Give the backbone structure.
Amino acid sequence: MEKVIDKFIRYVKIDTQSSEESTTMPSTEKQLTLANMLMEELKAMGLEDASVDNNGYVMATLKSNTDKNVPVVGFIAHMDTAPDASDENVKPQFVENYQGQDISLGNTAMLSPADFPELLYYKGQTLITTDGTTLLGADDKAGIAEIMTAVEYLLNHPDIKHGTVKVGFTPDEEIGRGADEFDVKKFGADFAYTLDGGRIGELEYENFNAAGLTVIVTGRNVHPGTAKNQMINSIIIAMEYNSLLPADQRPEHTEGYEGFFHLMDFRGSVDKTILKYIVRDHDKNKFEQKKRVAQEAADFLNKKYGKEVVSVELTDQYFNMKENIEPVKYIVDIAEKAMIEADVEPIIKPIRGGTDGSRLSFMGLPTPNIFAGGHNFHGIHEYIPAQSMEKAVEVIVNVVKGIEAL
């Protein structure tokens, strides 16, 4: 556990926040700081082909040490942190032998079982939290640390027979671009696993179908003193548009396989207002229906106002990996068995989001998702139990052993 924690703490102290506004790959130059560090660490371990390409992707190969012809497996995690929460100057806190108490996050916030009851699951364990000023970065630097530690363990235990293992670290996952330039052929794996899930035991091979929705409302600004029958207030119409979307299909009212419309940003003036949503559903038919609802709301308002005041832009982002995982379902079974052998209870459930794996699965690399162990990603209440990271390392090693035993 000491090794995986040491790596994790070093990695989270590097600012790797991605940027939606950027058009470069990676979206921020600072992600390359971590990328180059990881490349050098992999080379120092003995993975001589470790490299960082021009787009910021780190790849390396742990060579096979078995005479058996077994599939090549990859393990993938992302280097960036969410653009909506600072990861500059991260100062992790350690809470040893946690006993269910409230945890002070500096002078700004509290991490309490009253708000986050799953904390009680980790009584007696060591928790790593934020100091209340930044996110922690367990999403996904925990996954990176776990993969790096597992590779180091396999190198130090040559008695564990394994096939070829590929390592991949990606930029810009948090802004939906993590797989944009991923070279599946160069990576060379038959299948892979992302280490990007939440609580210990999570194993996921279903995810949302996803689209981005931008709604542009065009108004007309005139002096309010002479506005009668002339002013068109785009802010009011934007509020009206939002009211036409089903209120029970918002993230705060949904769970499991239920999809949603999530209003992410709302800004404007009388002249022009822009709303940005993400649209999600596991079911492809329901997903397409949601997109129709988004368009029909705009059509209704344009008819009501007798002119095109509302336009929508819908962009598909990724699709449910399930259809590409089910034909090779045995790779999920291998991970499930690996967890059981590590005394971890598998929690097989749909991802209420997406990972690099969801897109890679449609690029010819089936990639289900394994837990990394963190909770409350993207904010100051983020935390991770140290023991969950240790178990993730054990699961990776067990997966590699399970593949060799096929």
User: Anything to note?
Assistant: Residues 42 and 67 are 24 Å apart (CA to CA).
